[in-house]
Structure formats: C-alpha cells, structure tokens
Amino acid sequence: MSQAPAKLGALPSLIFASRWLQLPLYIGLILAQAVYVYHFWVELVHLIEAAFGNQQALAAIFEATGQKSATPPGHLTETTIMLVVLGLIDVVMISNLLIMVIVGGYETFVSRMNLEGHPDQPEWLSHVNASVLKVKLATAIIGISSIHLLKTFINAENYTDKVLIAQTVIHVVFLLSALAIAMTDRLLHPAAPAGGDAH
To answer: pLDDT of 118-138, one tens digit each?
Structure first.
C-alpha cells in the first residue's frame, strides 16, 4: 500500500515552488526558436530566389555568407550554395539544441510532462536527467561547432590565419570538454553489469 507523501512546511513549499520561476525562461527559448524558424525561411527564400537569377537575393546571400569579393558573381556558385546550406543546417542543429534544453530542462527541473506512452515522445526523454542532458548538450554543441568550422574552411580565403587557428583550437576545446563531461558522468554513474551475479 503506497504511503501518502508527507506534507511540506511553508518554507520548503516556497523553495520547491520556486522552480516555476524557470518557466518564463523556457517560454523565452520557445520565442527564440520562433526567431530561428523565421531566419531559416528568410535564408531559404533568398537561396531559391538567387537560384532563379534574382540579383538582390544573390547580393544578400553573398554578404550573409561572409564572402568579401568587391564584385559578387552574377550567379550562384557551388561555394555559395554550400555555405548557405551549411548555414541552414546550422540553424536546424541550434534549433534541435533549443528543443533539448526546453523539453529536457522543463522535464528535469520544473515539472513532469507525463508523456509516457505518447507516440511522439522523444526516445531520449525517457531516461533524461541532469547528467544525461549535459552530455547531450555537449555533443550538440560539438556538432554546431563542426558546422561553423567547416563553413570557415570552405570560405578560408576570407579569413586570416589567426581566425582559422582560433576556431580550430576552440573546436578542440569543445571536444575535450565534452569528453571530460562524458568521462565524469561515467565515473559518477558506472554502467550496470550486463549479467547479474549467479548464486
């Protein structure tokens, strides 16, 4: 027979209820997600218009991708298309990161969503906790950093060697940080043995 939960005192109840102060933060992240969706579609529309020869859209793309030639080409080049597509992928990956923070953070730190059995429940949410969330966020940040680094290398002629080296070093630091977080999580929460002890 389940035991009824003990009634909290006034101060513990206030402290526990303070978790709802995080709700406006998650709502703010949802609004930031909406801004990213708008930005994605603006960039995609520019790409499509430029593909059909719109010079104004082409100039906007050329400037947005950081290409510094005095006279932009009169048509889309493979490099420009690649930079725009990588930018769109970057937006999607940041959006995925936002979803992980919003859904996982709310579920972990604010309140249960009771999504068990829901057909659209994310697979990772069933076993999420603060430690797992940190590892997943670190992995997502590495992916975003990889996209940024690839964009920089593709457009390397428009960057100084100092910028290229700095971005590479920062990416390596992200990799080492994620590795350290994962190893710390493994030490704090060792995996259970595959088979139980036979007695």
So the answer is: 777 777 666 666 777 777 788
